[in-house]
Amino acid sequence: MRRVAIIGGGVTGCSVAWHLASQNIGEIHLFERDQLGSGTTWHSAGNITWKPVDDNDAPVLYLLDLIKRLEDETNLTSGWRTTGRLFLARDTDTLDMFSGFHEGALDRGVDARMLSPREASGLHPLLEASSLSGAWLNPLAGYLNPADLVTLYARSARALGAELHEQSNVSNLTTTNGHITGIVCGDETLEFDDVIICGGLWSSPLVAEQGVTLAQGGCEHFYIILDIDPRLASSTPSFVSPSDFIYGREEVGGLLLGCFDEQANTIDISNLPDPFSFSLLNENWDKFSPYFDRAAELFPALLNAPVRRFVNGPEAFTPDGNPFIGPVSDIDGLWLCTGMNSHGVTISGASGHIIADMLADREPRFAIDLYAPGRFGTKARDEVWLEKMISDAPSSFYQNVNPKK
Questions:
Q1: Which of 203, 240, 250, 308 would bridge with 338, disulfide CB 3.0–4.6 Å?
Q2: Which H, E and C letters describe 111-174, residue by residue?
Q3: Per-residue pLDDT tens digits for 193-226
Q4: 294-334, pLDDT tens digit by residue?
């Protein structure tokens, strides 16, 4: 029987495990060096927003259906809550872009709405109408608890026969004549026919031992949670303001406020403590304060709101904002599913499905051209270029007025 190893037990690795098990690909083993979800997944904001663009439309609709299916199968919950999202425009150019989204939504039968500033402020009690040119209300948006989604994937994968090994550190891969033969886990060398790397930030050093250079890197990515009085209703729409590089939503009656900052601070993961499980970076108010000031123009009540928590977690970004999903060309049996650019939760269903389709030698259900692992060629080895591109990557999402968070 075909033996497949998955390295990394975050939301991506657990989705891959479930998809492979559900397609009866073979004997599936997932290896997580600490606890499932203990790397990047646990501090994700958990936002999921559908948009009428090719790389988001079908994957998000699939994920929403999949969440419901897994909840029904396991009698567990993901914490999913549909809130809708307000896309806030501070200028006419941004509003024109939202009009394009609106037309795409209507073409797909989605009951979206273009809103005046006053109508938008009527949907969010903290929003100041005078700061807006208008808004677009997207009803297919909400959030979940990423740790609960990991549990859904993991519980269902185990029920289908997959073995998920925690506290199992994979230190190396083994190859013979350009083909994967297995992994080194602890003191053991285990044989596998295929290995799928789902280690997020920690994927690069693992494949580097095999001469593979990944064009991905780490950046600081942060949000704060503020206490709001009176408390926000759980049905309050989330929001995004692309020209301000900010996003936010209700969080247990408070407000979660995050940003995708310009010239983001890059991270050398070799300088992170080991292990880094369930860990965060230091607060960085110098970088966050300008975005808080912009948010306070939209939501003046934030100026008097106490900060409950500052979350600064490292995340993996790529130069073009797209992950690496697919085979490594020079090593048969080695696959990548990494570099999720802070939307690993959103793309988790599609990424798992793509890997399962590829291993089964089927035409992938979702478009894959954007995700080719070798698409940057020799540029991946240009460290100066890569660091600049990685630093620019988070804010590029919003400069294109196509936010992925």
A1: 203
A2: CCEEECHHHHHCCCCCCCHHHCCEEEEECCEEECCHHHHHHHHHHHHHHCCCEEECCCCEEEEE
A3: 999 999 999 999 999 999 999 999 999 999 999 9
A4: 999 999 999 999 999 999 999 999 999 999 999 999 999 99
**3 state SS for 168-225:** CCEEEEEEECCEEEEEEECCEEEECCEEEECCHHHHHHHHHCCCCCCCCEEEEEEEEE
**Whole-number pLDDT of residue 400:** 57
Do residues 166 and 154 touch, judged by C-beta distance below 8 A?
Answer: no
pLDDT at 55: 84
The pair of structure tokens assigned to 102 is 């609106």
Say if residue 329 is exposed, middle or buried (CB neighbours under 10 Å; 0-12, 13-18, 19+). Answer: exposed
Q: Residue 404: what pLDDT?
A: 43
CA distance from start to end of the chain: 39
CA count, 13 A, side-chain hemisphere, 53: 14
Distance CA(331)–CA(235), nearest Å, equals 49
Question: Which residues, given as ranges, of the chain have pLDDT below 70?
Answer: 399-405
Cβ atoms of residues 201 and 164 within 8 Å:
no
